Amino acid sequence: MTVSDWRKITKQLKNKPVILQKFLKFNKPKDRKTGITAKKCERCGRFGAHLGQYNINMCRQCFREIAEEIGFNKYS
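Now predict its structure.
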């Protein structure tokens, strides 16, 4: 079951809270601890090309957009 399927089913079960709780207990996707999906950009939500140095937690595209605003100098 993919995450999108899981979200569709939870929308359908909103009117049935008991069944929804039972479904969530057994079918909720586990939180990621390793791999590419463990970290995502705090600004846009992308998974790849993540910069974690200096606790930036952004993708490289967002970092390029706001680097000068947060105090980094751009050379060349």
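The helical segments are 3-12, 17-27, 60-66.
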